[in-house]
């Protein structure tokens, strides 16, 4: 295996020991009121050999929640609960950033304690369904954010970033992809506003750039990353003008620690972003199409061709807590249990064996 994966790399204030990044993956094992748990601390610490861990999506406010048992960073109690996670990761020699994710119109009032109506740039209902304890639920029409509510949401992100630092995270990643709130403002099928936040590309990127700048000003841009997913139709998103949209968005970003790109079978788009962005890029490489697990081979190819400075692995890290060691050894790799992705207990969460544990069994 190419040693390039195991070379150190610097992302702003973050000095990584290798280039294997654990991608953000929702696991829905927080408490109903959004507290991180001891089990979550074990899960993340097990994966501390990653160059960097990007946490699961963390809601920055009550109305940012979209899923049951997802964690928050908007209260002091939630902030305190995350300290056991960051402490465990740091004791194990790892680094971890908090992904701040506002679900926007994706969710359902029955899935979270507040029972709130989801919010969005416009009152446009998402196609598809979400899933609760009793089965499938149709998405409901969201409330269109007012100008004052948009300003409050920007502040929510900055406050959550400050809470993340207090909780011991090494930085934050702002989620601006995958059909969640920031992406909903970017896309022309979900953003039908006629004010300064809708219409032109300049207007549609305004909310995302306000959030990213506010977070950067609060904790320092060298501890902030942003995740984007150009041309990703997930959660009923249609951008309409992808190339121009992301060219404008990237041009408006401050000098962040990293830009995290989730590919969706659009390597030419990735190359264009790499040419434009002079900073560090973390890539979740899917040069052909989404839905294929990232492998060491696709990771090395992305590094060697220069489209990535570090590579995010998702499902592979979920099933293999010691993924860097397994990649260096050429395997074997644990089989993935897809039935335990979301919610539940330790099964399919903290019980995947390391190579050493498998060898002694």
Describe the structure in your own words.
It holds the Pfam family Oxidored_FMN. InterPro entries: Aldolase_TIM, OxRdtase_FMN_N, Oye-like. This is Alkene reductase. There is one protein chain. With 361 residues, the protein is of the alpha/beta class. The protein has a single domain, classed as Alpha-Beta Barrel (TIM Barrel), CATH 3.20.20. The protein contains twelve helices and 14 strands. Strand 12, helix 8 and strand 13 form a beta-alpha-beta unit. Helix 1 packs parallel to helix 2 and helix 3 packs parallel to helix 6. The chain is globular and about 60 Å long. The model has no long low-confidence stretch (mean pLDDT 96).
- SS strand fraction: 15-25%
Oligomer: single chain
Number of discrete domains: 1
The helix/strand class is alpha/beta
Tell me the distance between the termini. Answer: 27 Å
Number of helices: 12
User: Order of strands across the biggest sheet?
Assistant: 3-4-5-10-11-12-13-14
Q: CATH class, anyone? A: Alpha Beta
Could you report the average pLDDT, rounded to the nearest whole number? 96
Q: Which regions are unreliable across 5 or more consecutive residues at pLDDT < 50?
A: none
Largest sheet: 8 strands, parallel, barrel
Fourth-level CATH superfamily? Aldolase class I
Q: What's the CATH topology name?
A: TIM Barrel
Q: Which term fits the overall shape?
A: globular
Under the CATH scheme, the architecture is Alpha-Beta Barrel
The level of helicity is 25-40%
Radius of gyration: 19 Å
Number of strands: 14
SSE pattern: EEEHEHEEEEEHEHHHEHEHEHEHHH
